[in-house]
Specification:
The protein is of the alpha/beta class and about 475 residues long. The chain has 14 helices and 13 strands. It holds the Pfam family AXE1.
Length: about 475
Amino acid sequence: MKNNRRNFIKWSGLSGFGIGLAPSLVLKAKAEKQSSHLMVEGEANKPPHRLPSMIQNYYIDKVREISKKHSDRIYGLKTKKDALEYQAEIKNKIKDCLGPFPEKIPLNPVITGKLEREGFTVEKVIYESRPGFKVTANLYIPKNNGQPMPAVLGTCGHTREAKSSAYQYFAQSLARKGYVVLIIDCIGQGERLQYPTPGRESATKWGVTEHIYAGNPLTLVGDSMAGWFVWDAIRGIDYLCSRPEVDHKYIGVTGNSGGGTQTTWLCGVEPRLTMAAPSCFVTTIRRNLENQEVQDAEQYAPKGLAKGLDHFDFIAAMAPKPVILITQEKDFFDTRGTQETFEMLQHYYKLLGAEENIQLFRGDDYHGYHQPAREAMYGFFNQVTKISNDGKEPEFELEKDEDLWCTPAGQLSKDESKTIPEILKKQSIEIGKKRGTVSSSNLKKPWLKLYACQKSLKYRITEYTEQERNHCFLDLL
């Protein structure tokens, strides 16, 4: 088992009792130290001269201030007019965070194969979200239904196989209930590795690592991985709307973990959505920071915190349309934050006369889109569409990964699709040409401005004492 915080929380199940157990754990640790014959006193066992929590605590205090102002403002909204004015404001802020989006180009969809199954067909689809940048997807179409049907975009979390992983469960189940479902591969997963090597391997590592490797240079050119993920999803909805089987009046989105992230961001920018079910993501930024919940590039909305936005706002931008928040009691995305966000949304939806359209499902499990959560989503979507009364999930077998591939080798080749590094290389060269040559004197100016200070501060880090072993002090001389 990896020695990290997420696995500790996942496997120990003690996170909820941390405060109550802390004193006893400290006493036990001291007793063990005193009795241990393996403990060697000396320089090696002194606490390191570093600042382990100063920056963290500084930002927590800042975010708590922002969070309180945000909460006070939401509960300070008293009328429908207040709520609508606030919504117009946050929609503009969200667009500024996730955009600007590129111009839409023809999708140029290609169907590379089909699977005929009992009750539904799976089409293997590749479409272009940007010029030369391809998205691999599976389209689940119910059989024997001649009329237009409600549709759902499925977004995947951090799994290697993405669309062909266990996320098939909700895709197959929704299709059996009469929904057209498009489930797409994320950047850096499934058939869309951005740093591919022979044998379907990544030169970095699939998922989180690829997201960060591609996300950092995107930031340098004024773009974001969050924006790229959202744009792929927007174009996925374009594809759904292009299909004659789809009823445009009912288009939903759901996903878990990283898919919950994409679902949440999409709620903030996609007006064609009529319902949404983000799972295991929505909480509060304050809770994430307090828990040291580190996330990768696409899970942050650039400039969002500076603009006073929180997860609440991306859902509120979609109000009063129906949304169900799905959380798990033992998730590392703090369910207390989910509850806080839900209560604010209840207040907000009530102002818009649609309190019944915001719901919360809390499971008893760990992080994941578990069957009870999926069934809560089925039932919620059925309430909206009235297409089915069946909220239960039938038993069925998952397809093999390779049977759902859109490409022969399970990876878009460089001849088939551009990659983010390739696109950014060209973009960086173009930006450099526009910028022109930068002189050494001009380079010095921002640095001199940065380091200009009226008073020079000298400092030293004091020694730790036994009582201060988790703290250190900065002495200004």
